[in-house]
Amino acid sequence: MPGLFKWGGRKEDEPRPAPAAAVPPPAPEPSNTSKVLPKVLSALAGQPSPVLMDLGPVVGANISFFGDRLACKFYVEDFFAEVEQHARAGTRDQLGAIFATRLKYPAGSIDGILCWDLFDFLDRAAGYALASRLVPLVRKGGILYGFFGQKAGEISQYTRYIVDTDDSFRLRTSPATPMPRTVHVNRDLNKMFDGLAVTESVLLKNSSRETLFRKL
Amino acid sequence: MNIGKSVIIKGELSGSEDLTIEGQVDGKIELKQNILTIGPNGKIKASVFAKAVVVQGEVHGNITATERVDIRDNGSVDGDLSAPRVAIADGAHFRGSIDMQKGGMKPTEVKPTGTTTSPSTPSPVATPAAAAVSAGR
Question: Among B72, B120, B66, which Cα is nearest to B96's?
């Protein structure tokens, strides 16, 4: 009964099944120590229930982190979605007009704005348009936190900043439609965010400047 | 209790048992003592009040939960969340505000001024195109 032992097995003339597609391992997420983040937290901790606005995509871990630390209210705007949409359509120059129709919050109603590296993805005009909308929203004593790339070139990935502890975050990347990075030097930043003062500015290994602004 | 894929409800939905929605609901949902699950095929345009809300599908509207809101991978919410605990998975889309009332503290009420899509959704609401792009990030 030679065939008996072949039950359930593959027939010799049957094609071999294709091997399962290998799942690429997740990209490493190195942890970065931040000297500025503790100052962001201490500035916000002074308020009983601060109101935070996040211009990036929602990151569940950050909501939990800031919620636990500060019992804050969060507004998630996710402007990167607009950036990607317009980069794909080749209409990045229209982003400035979009900022004019969003962010309809009362002046002085926001304690902290988390920009992450959004301004790297905006051309100069859109950057100025957004900054001019943001500055009036920050209450006196409130902060704006961002990362500003200092090396010109093409950006082909977005970065999510995942806050792990009071002084460290991880970077998680995802693909982006390639676009040129807009470099804002300190003089540009001072002009763009007229009304806010740079209180901390640290150059990171990746040539990005981690910056904390404050409305004095 | 399950509301199937082909069911469309327009109006107010309330009850006292856990509910899973795979269909479409436009209006208001109230399950104050129970768990509401919006399944992967569920499409909700409503204000939602429940003990706990799990979102695997799409919600346009505000969600208030007395215990928790859980937006799972591929879940999408455009609206405001109010719950003591909020969990948002990687890959989920969210745009709106999150209010986690810790220990009875009431955060300062800040409402965007100007045009909004409806009186019950004070935050700026995403365009569908923006939401779709965001989900792919």
Answer: B120
Q: Yes or no: is domain A36-214 CATH 3.40.50.150?
A: yes
pLDDT value for A16: 57
Q: Is the pLDDT of residue B131 over 60?
A: no
Chain B hits for A44, Cβ within 8 Å: none
Q: Which ipTM score applies to this complex?
A: 0.76
Domain annotation covers residue B68? yes
For chain A, the residues whose C-beta falls within 8 A of a C-beta of chain B are: 48-51, 57-60, 63-64, 67, 71-78, 80-82, 84-85, 88, 102-106, 109-110, 158, 174
Domain that includes residue B20, residue range: 2-93
Dump strand ranges (E) for B39-134. 43-55, 58-60, 63-71, 76-78, 81-82, 85-88, 93-99
B104 part of a folded domain: no
Let me know if residue B137 belongs to a domain: no
CA atoms within 13 A on the CB side of B11: 4
- Number of domains into which chain B is organized: 1
Given a cut of 70, the residues of chain A with pLDDT beneath it are 1-27
pLDDT reported for residue A24: 64
